[in-house]
Each structure stands twice: as C-alpha cells, then as structure tokens.
C-alpha cells in the first residue's frame, strides 16, 4: 500500500523534496513516437513554462528540473517563512492567478467594507489558501493536471495521462541535496539526449549555465547562496561555481567513453560532505534506485523516522553504504 503524502512530507525535517512524475502512455510526454513518427517535443515547453510560472505563484522554489521524454524530475524547496510573511491580500492575489475564490474574498480584494463575521470567514479561507500555496501536493497537482488537459485535448482523447501519483523523496541533508541536484541535472546526459549539460534543453542546469555566462543567476530558480554560514541568506547552501564544476566532472566520469580526471577544484564539496568518489558516482547515477522515500545520512534518516513516528528507517542500508 502506498504511503500517504502527509507521512512523507515534513517541513520540520527538511524543506527539500525530489519529485518524479511519469507518463503512462506509449506515445510519451515529449519526444517522438517511433511508430507514428509524430513529434511531441513542443510539450517540453509546456512543462517548463508552467513549472516556472508556478514557482512564481506558490511559496515553493524550483531548485532543479529536467523534462525527459516520458517523465519529469523536480527538486523543490518549501518556503514556509514566505508563506507566513505574505499578508492576506498577497495570498489572494496569488491564488486568483490559478483559481477563483469566494465572493467574500473578491469583495475583500476590491476594498469593500466587510462585517466582522465576513472578515473572519475571509481569514479562514485565506489560511486555507496559504497552506495550499506552500503544499508540494498542490503544486504537483496544478502542474500535472494542466499538462494532462493540454495533452488530452491535443491527442483528442480522454483518460489518465500520468501514472497514479507523483513520487517524492525527502532530501534530509546537504549531501543528499547535492547528489540529487546533480542526478537531476545530468539526466539528459545519462540518457544520451545531450552530450553536454549546457546542450540539454528544458533543464535547470542549462538555464543556470546561460545565466552564469552573464555573471547572473536565473530569477526563476532558487539561487546558490554559497557555503553555509551564521547569517545564511535564502538559497542553496553551495557555491554556484563549485557546483557547476562538480556537475561537469560527474558528467565526464559517468560516461564510458570519457572517464575523465577529477579536477582539483571539484574536490572541496565532496570532502565537505564526506562522500567518497565512488559513492558519489553511485549517488548521481542511481539516486532513485538507491533511496525510496527519504535520502540522507543515518542521523538525518533516524531523526526523520522518529519525528514521523514510523517503525522502519527507509533506505538506511544504502545510506550507511553510500554516505559513510
């Protein structure tokens, strides 16, 4: 039996989650149908545009993504502080970009005078929207439902477009986060859909590289904030330059025809996270096979299991083998 989503996502343990959605049809989400010769490449653009739009509306940051031929990989960050910081009007404006709300909420936005009871009803409704705008389940629901409707309309058919529900993995520490980011960014390279990360269309790594060439970071993605420190700004706890070097080295190492050599400037992040080179390659090529619902070191998985009141520590054997 599948584990309920409420028993998998715990912001108090980690705000980072790896989400995977897989298309159920033979005709693929994107790419070219080998039987009919029909191309669905344009659907990659649908997914990327909708994903980045939702990242601007929800209190959820997009850390990494890769739109593949029949599935998508996302690394998302739940920004609870932002959800709490936004006032009622800001929450309603964001919600109205996706859905309609109640008549009272519309009156509130228009600045009309409301009674005390009506304001209480508005507050209750806004708190519900606030919770949904910081929910990965709602984020994935809106994303996948939108793509499914467009694809069904284009294919002139009805029925299920995605497999049951999206799969999520809790990334419990920096080591798991770094490995998963590289795993997602290198998906097209491993699938031989691109030779280099900067040539892999509809991926976060290409967007970051394009922006880095202009000494910038893409506004649509969660920025790299540098090494963890006392007064840490909001962002991924790594240096962008080091991460790009790490991805490049990993991409060279996992290819059979280009074994490569470890650059000296790519070592610090591995040393800091205490991951040996062989284990790093396993993590970044077999991340979803190595971990089920949680990913991280033994201490992080144990704390997460105790907090969620679960009996078994998921993927603990692989954690001990790969993160030790």
What structural keywords apply?
alpha+beta, 15 helices, globular
- The portion of residues forming beta strands comes to 5-15%
Number of strand segments: 5
Largest sheet: 5 strands, mixed
Low-pLDDT regions: 258-270
- Alpha carbon gap, first and last residue: 31 Å
So what's the overall shape? globular
**Helical percent range?**
40-55%
Helix/sheet category: alpha+beta
Overall pLDDT confidence:
83
H/E order of the elements? EHEEHHHHHEHHHHHHHEHH
Radius of gyration: 21 Å
Task: Work out the helix count.
Answer: 15
Spatial arrangement of strands, main beta sheet: 2-3-1-4-5
Written overview of the protein:
The chain has 15 helices and 5 strands. The longest helix has 20 residues, at 136-155. Strand 2 (60-67) and strand 3 form a beta hairpin. It is globular. Helix 3 crosses helix 5 (116-132). 36% of the residues are buried. With 324 residues, the chain is an alpha+beta fold.
Question: What order do the helices and strands come in, and which of them pair?
Answer:
Layout: E1 16-22, H1 42-57, E2 60-67, E3 71-78, H2 80-85, H3 88-96, H4 103-109, H5 116-132, H6 136-155, E4 167-171, H7 174-185, H8 187-190, H9 204-212, H10 240-254, H11 267-273, H12 277-285, H13 287-290, E5 294-295, H14 298-307, H15 316-323
Parallel strand pairs: 4-5
Antiparallel strand pairs: 1-3, 1-4, 2-3
């Amino acid at each position: 039996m599948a584990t309920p989503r409420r028993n998998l996502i715990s912001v108090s343990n980690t705000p980072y989650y790896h989400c995977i959605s897989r298309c159920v049809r033979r005709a693929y989400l994107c790419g070219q149908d080998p039987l009919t010769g029909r191309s669905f490449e344009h659907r990659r653009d649908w997914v990327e545009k909708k994903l980045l739009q939702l990242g601007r509306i929800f209190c959820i940051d997009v850390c990494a993504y890769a739109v593949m031929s029949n599935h998508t990989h996302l690394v998302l960050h739940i920004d609870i502080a932002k959800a709490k910081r936004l006032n009622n009007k800001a929450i309603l404006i964001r919600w109205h970009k996706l859905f309609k709300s109640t008549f009272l909420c519309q009156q509130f936005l228009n600045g009309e005078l409301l009674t005390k009871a009506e304001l209480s009803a508005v507050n209750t409704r806004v708190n519900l929207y606030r919770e949904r705008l910081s929910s990965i389940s709602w984020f994935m629901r809106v994303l996948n439902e939108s793509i499914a409707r467009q694809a069904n309309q284009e294919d002139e058919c009805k029925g299920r477009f995605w497999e049951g529900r999206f799969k999520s993995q809790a990334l419990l520490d920096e080591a798991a986060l770094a490995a998963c980011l590289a795993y997602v960014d290198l998906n097209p390279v491993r699938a031989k859909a691109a030779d280099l990360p900067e040539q892999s269309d509809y991926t976060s790594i290409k967007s970051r590289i394009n922006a880095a060439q202009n000494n910038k970071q893409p506004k649509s993605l969660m920025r790299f904030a540098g090494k963890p420190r006392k007064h840490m700004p909001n962002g991924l706890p790594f240096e962008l330059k080091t991460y790009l070097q790490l991805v490049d080295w990993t991409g060279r190492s996992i290819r059979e025809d280009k074994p490569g050599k470890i650059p000296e400037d790519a070592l610090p992040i591995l040393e800091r996270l205490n991951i040996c080179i062989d284990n790093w390659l396993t993590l970044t090529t077999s991340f979803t096979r190595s971990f089920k619902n949680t990913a991280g070191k033994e201490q992080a998985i144990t704390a997460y299991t105790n907090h969620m009141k679960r009996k078994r520590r998921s993927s603990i054997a692989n954690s001990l083998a790969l993160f030790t």
